[in-house]
Amino acid sequence: MNIPSELKYTKDHEWVKIEGDVATIGITDFAQGELGDIVYVDVDTLDETVEIEEVFGSVEAVKTVSDLFMPLTGEVIEFNETLEDEPELVNSDPYGAGWMIKVKLSDASQVEDLLSAEGYQEIIQG
C-alpha cells in the first residue's frame, strides 16, 4: 500500500500536500481501494470557504457514496475538472492525477494536527 511520506493525512483517509498557503487534497490509496471503482467525484464547494471537518464533496463508487471531509479550513480555489470525465484517475493515481481540490489555507497552524504517514498507517492497520 502506498503512503507517501512527504504528505499529511487525516483519520478520514484524505491526504494533504502543503505548498506555501495552498493545500492540494485527495483521498488515499487505502480509501480508493476500500471504495472500489470510482464513477463520480462531486465537489460543489468551489470558491467557498469550508471549515475543518465539514463536507466539501463526495465520491461515488459502484457500490457506495462517501462524503469527503475538509482536512483544513480554507477557501476551495480549484477543482480537478479532469475527474469529471475520468473519475477512475482517483483509483489509478490517487496521489497524482487523481487529486481533488486545492484550498487556500485560513489557518496554517491546523497543519500541525494532521497525521504523518506513520500515524496514518497505524490507523489503517488498527
Structural description of this entry:
With 126 residues, the chain is an alpha+beta fold. The chain has one domain (8-106): OB fold (Dihydrolipoamide Acetyltransferase, E2P), CATH 2.40.50.100. 19% of the residues lie in helices and 35% in strands. The chain contains four helices and nine strands. The longest helix is centred in the last third of the chain and has 9 residues, at 117-125.
Short description:
The chain is α+β, with helices and mostly antiparallel strands.
Task: Provide the fold topology.
Layout: E1 8-9, E2 14-19, E3 22-27, H1 29-35, E4 38-42, E5 49-50, E6 55-61, E7 65-69, E8 74-79, H2 82-85, H3 89-92, E9 101-105, H4 117-125
Antiparallel strand pairs: 1-2, 2-3, 3-9, 4-6, 5-8, 6-7, 8-9
* Estimated helix fraction: 10-25%
Q: How many beta-strand segments?
A: 9
Main beta-sheet strand count, sense and barrel state: 6 strands, antiparallel
User: H/E series, N to C?
Assistant: EEEHEEEEEHHEH
CATH superfamily: RNA polymerase II/Efflux pump adaptor protein, barrel-sandwich hybrid domain
Please give the order of strands in the largest beta sheet: 1-2-3-9-8-5
Distance between the termini: 15 Å
Whole-number count of domains = 1
Helix segment tally:
4
Tell me the radius of gyration. 13 Å
The CATH class turns out to be Mainly Beta
